[in-house]
Amino acid sequence: MLHSTALTPTAAHASARHRRGSLVGDALTLLRDPGILGIWLHANRLAELLASAHAPHRAGKRTQQIANELRAKLLPPARSGVYPDLEVRPGSFIRAVSLAGTGAPVAVPGTPRPLSRHERLQGLLAGTHLLMGDGVFIPAGDRNRHPDLRDRLTLTLPSLGDDAADRSLAQVDVVVLRDGRLHRLYEVESNAGKAAKALLRLGDVLATAGTPPEIVTAVPDAQVDRLKLELERPTLRALRGVCRILPFSEIEDPFGP
Questions:
Q1: Is 110 exposed, middle or buried (0-12, 13-18, 19+ CB in 10 A)?
Q2: d(CA 67, CA 16)
């Protein structure tokens, strides 16, 4: 829920030339709110917060429409330095790093950044298999992003007898173990191109695993057809009978239509 002052107008930053009451104006005010300052917000999450404020000039707009407008109207100028107190990183993440009107960087210690969509889906997949009684491994660098699961995760993987294959296996987004053996590997990627690269890396695992595990590649719904085309490439053709494509919507809403 939004902090009660989140959309209360504050002193304008010197770089903030925007129409009062506009979408960009409200987004900037929200990003600079003391309760949110310093936190990375994805454009989709920022759109959700703005939509929840029910401003008259956004009445009837879908959250995705607001997110698209933010990507078009706010992120490009923020990347080009129009707003010196804003930082933007790949993947449509944005945050304000100073108080409006001061320009002084402000840290927000102890405030975790919101989960990215990748991390959220990774946690959903890992949690589902833990509930089923499977062993679950996720890469060491990702574990701190899932404190509710961390103590239940498996910390070691069976060796494949090949150092390169072992390194590839340890990078898989979610490794599911059943009876101590590799059962299923999940890769969660934002587009088909990245998914294809991940599948090439998994060739090392398939070449050395005694019993090949199932491979599931999760991609946005709009990327499913493109990934099917990628699997027609000669280097990936062998995976067509092994790799299953999972749309993001089936993870986020498994009981949907």
A1: exposed
A2: 20
